[in-house]
Automatic annotation (TrEMBL):
Domain HD-GYP: 140-336
Keywords: Hydrolase
Primary enzyme class: hydrolase
Organism expressing this protein natively: Noviherbaspirillum album
SUPFAM superfamilies: HD-domain/PDEase-like
Name listed for the protein in its UniProt record: HD-GYP domain-containing protein
PANTHER family cross-referenced by the UniProt entry: CYCLIC DI-GMP PHOSPHODIESTERASE PA4108, CYCLIC DI-GMP PHOSPHODIESTERASE PA4108-RELATED
Molecular function as annotated in GO: hydrolase activity
Coiled-coil ranges (or none): none
Length: 408
């Protein structure tokens, strides 16, 4: 049985099933292991980990700890409450109408980040006049329909992850700022910071950046230098503002002081850096990498919400969840009817009832004629169904993004 416990309850002989944190935030070569010494427990505590999941079938039990299922049910109740508090951003055009423009913007931004990284590696200055128009294009696409570009950015080639991750962080951060009511200039500065936040990775050797396995302690230290390296690069860029510098330097800081490079306490981390930290981890854990499989976006949100007790600002996490939806655009969901569909747009007032393109029957295990279902409407008006759960595309061997936009 899988149970959730605080790290102060850990004992030698327990089997760690999950560290309940982003894989870069724990110091072990594996995410599942038997605890064999007090030193290992101390290492977990010192890493800023507060809760873990243990497997009682493989090690010692914690009698009064909640099961993973109990913890999940409690979490879902909290999410349902959050979903109804504030409306989602207004959609101005449909996903279908925005998709072609979004694809061009994605490709333009991807190439720009690749160029910025290449120039930074060669010691060349970053040209802000090349970066700012791309951020403007991303912002305008988000204003028309945030789901089109964010949906496209769910698809990342493993070899292009470093570049597309920066585009995703920019896009999500702009959407986050807009849904939070921030003005145009703050949003623009945040977008610049998002697009440039990982510039310091240009100085990380490729064999470390793309290593297909757990990093050594020495390699971790190289990776952990990238916020300061990126900050130093941006300092040499004429006209760069304080917000991009702050995001670049502090997007790996954590509210409990366990982050890097400065181990800042919560009251020393700016609101924008707190927002960037959430977006950065969300995109990282949903992406496929050479060393780990990305998780579904809905599951990633639940993980971040769980971790927000210690690592992230809980109010900002809830705001981000309202921004992207409890079931983010691109999420594969199972409906009560037994159909599978891909979420294409959030509902403006009910995040539990988005628009979904259904395309597969789990009852017959076959593809069906694709159709859009608006879950906020009753039966007979294009609705009449409910989300039962989010699903793994691998489990059903389907590609939901093929049905992101239905044929005319």
């Amino acid at each position: 049985m899988i149970k959730k416990i605080g790290v102060r309850e850990l004992r030698v002989g327990m089997f760690i099933h999950d560290f309940s944190c982003h894989w870069m935030d724990h110091p072990f070569a594996r995410s599942r292991l038997m605890l064999t010494s007090e030193d290992e427990i101390r290492k977990i505590i010192d890493a800023g980990i507060h809760e873990v999941y243990i497997d009682t079938s493989k090690g010692l039990d914690a009698a009064h700890a909640p099961t993973a299922e109990e913890a999940r049910r409690d979490l879902e109740k909290e999410l349902v409450a959050i979903a109804g508090r504030e409306p989602a951003p207004v959609i101005r055009v449909s996903v279908a109408d925005e998709l072609a423009r979004a694809a061009q913007i994605r490709n333009q931004a991807h190439q720009l980040v690749r160029t910025v990284m290449h120039d930074a590696r060669l010691g060349k200055a970053i040209e802000l006049d090349q970066v700012e128009p791309v951020v403007q294009n991303i912002t305008e696409s988000i204003l028309r329909n945030p789901g089109a570009l964010t949906g496209l950015l769910r698809i990342k080639n493993k070899d292009d992850y470093t570049f597309l991750h920066s585009v995703s962080v920019c896009t999500l951060l702009v959407a986050f700022c807009r849904s939070s009511g921030m003005d145009a200039e703050l949003t623009r500065q945040a977008g610049l910071g998002g697009l440039l936040h990982d510039t310091g990775k240009a100085l990380v050797p490729d064999e470390v950046l793309n290593k297909p396995g757990r990093l050594t302690d020495e390699e971790f230290e190289i990776i952990r230098r990238h916020p300061k390296d990126g900050y130093d690069i941006l300092l040499k860029t004429p006209g760069v503002g304080e917000i991009p510098l702050d995001i670049t330097l502090h997007h790996h800081e954590r509210m409990d002081g366990s982050g890097y490079p400065d181990k800042l306490p919560a009251d020393k981390i700016s609101t924008m850096a707190q927002m960037a930290a959430i977006v950065d981890v969300y995109d990282a854990i949903t992406a496929d990498r050479c060393y780990h499989k990305g998780m579904p976006a809905a599951e990633a949100l639940r993980k971040i919400f769980e971790w927000s007790k210690f690592h992230f600002n809980p109010q900002q996490v809830q705001s981000f969840m309202r921004c992207v939806g409890i079931y983010p655009v691109g999420t594969l969901v199972l409906l009560e009817s037994g159909r599978l569909g891909v979420v294409t747009e959030p509902h403006e007032t009910n995040l539990l009832s988005p628009k979904v393109n259904v395309f597969f029957s789990t009852k017959s295990n076959t593809y069906i004629k694709p159709v859009q279902v608006d879950l906020s409407k009753p039966l007979g008006m294009g609705g009449g169904d409910k989300i039962q759960s989010y699903q793994s595309a691998e489990k059903w061997r389907v590609d939901p993004m093929k049905f992101f936009v239905l044929p005319a």
